Amino acid sequence: MIKVEHLTKEYVLRHQAQGYTALRDVITEKAKGIFGNKPKNTETFKALSDVNFEIKQGERVGIIGRNGAGKSTLLKVLSRIVSPTQGRITLDGRVSSLLEVGTGFHPELSGRENIFLNGAILGMSKHEIKNRFDEIVEFSEVEKFLDTPVKRYSSGMYVRLAFAVAAHLEPEILIVDEVLAVGDAQFQKKCIGKMKDVSGSGRTVLFVSHNMGAINSLCDRGILLNRGSVDFDGTAQGAVERYLIRMNQQEGSDELAMRTDRTGNGRFRFTSVSMKDQQNKHLEEVFSGGYLKLEFGFEAVEDLDLSKMIFSVVFNDDFQNPAMAFVSDEMNSDFSALKRGGTLVLEIPELLLRGNNYSLSLFASYADTSADAVCDSISNASSVNVLPSDFYLSGKTTRTGYYGISKATYSA
Asked: Of 250, 273, 307, which residue constitutes the final position of a domain?
């Protein structure tokens, strides 16, 4: 259905010139661009670089990668919204795309009119659209507002109608970007079920998402993009695992103090994380039910009263779902002895997690947890590898999995 050969997409990035720019300089730079010469204060950025793959009829393919990896650019090229710089794309069938809220809709037209407009763009006759009209309206759940201009729709209503149109007008290839994240959990589940039905009828689905659970649930194949190139092409589970390993490697390669992907006012900042055992020796791994001490280096401004700080440490699974959390105010922790430029310590006598790799999210706020009180919040600050163990002293090792373990007894 889809064949991509040596696909490359380049963009020219322009940078703001410093100081005063004369009109003659602007005209000269424009002329250079017309005759193929590279203007000043520009650089070439490769959003996609020599991408190659084939997708067969009926496959459900998840395309994943970090922000800026080239996922959305790839879908735009496949949807013929932008043209490739180099390479060749072969598409066998009608393509329906849902790339961002409002794609293919006219804001001044009603929901009813946009259904017919979108169907016409896909090359369907009025009779074909009428046959699917009731199913589209029922799925979208916007019947009450069907004759209202879509510019008055909420983002959720927009997406519901847009997805319903894209999925029900029988395209041979359905392309869906992260836009489904706008909808609520119930609607996302409904959409994933519909995409499974679409592929079950022999049509092809390309799905981009940062929700690894949705990728594993829907897709049977995964393509991982990294800096515009294909880093992995195989099973969906294999792609997710490779993505998470890559993410942890890249996050871990930066010093925590230098990380810029954090939020907060900066009055308190985490600068390092280390794991230690009861003898204060550095740990690489910890067993289920074992002792773990986490030490966090930090920086704080002079006038910050550290005794009023609130901290939380969250252990997350592969899908960034919280598996365990330690929140200082809930634990009634006392930080009156915490010294500026010192170390914050979290001591866990028994780590009640099954074997697997967990990422840590760190949070620090002053006095309360409202948005304006947040000093530092950072995801994937570090990772903790938990090994299975004979937790129950039964002679059997616990299974791996993202769910807890606890002291308990079954009885007849």
From this structure: 250
Crossing angle, helix 185-200 and helix 155-168, to 10 degrees? 10
Query: Which of these, 322, 321, 303, 301, lies nearest to 313 by C-alpha position?
Result: 322
Q: What is the pTM of this model?
A: 0.61
Last residue of a domain, one of 193, 218, 250: 250
Compute and round to an integer the Cα radius of gyration of the chain: 26
Cβ contact 294:280 at 8 Å? no
Q: Which single residue is written with the structure tokens 């780590």?
A: 351
Question: What domain count does the chain have?
Answer: 2
Q: Are residues 72 and 93 in the same domain?
A: yes
Residue range(s) defining the domain that contains residue 170? 2-250
- Shared-domain flag, residues 362 and 226: no
Q: How far apart are CA 222 and CA 110, in angstroms?
A: 37
- Residues 381 and 383: their CA atoms lie apart, in Å, by 7
Interatomic CA distance for residues 175 and 100, integer angstroms: 11
Domain membership of residue 211 (yes or no) is: yes
Burial-class residue 68 by CB neighbours within 10 Å (0-12, 13-18, 19+): middle
Other CB atoms within 10 A of residue 309 CB = 22
- Cα-Cα end-to-end distance for the chain: 57
Amino acid letter, 304 = L
Residue 10: closest CA among 82, 63, 88: 82
What digits encode the pLDDT tens for the residues 164-221? 887 887 778 888 887 666 666 677 778 888 888 888 888 898 988 877 777 877 888 9
Residue 203 and residue 321 share a domain? no
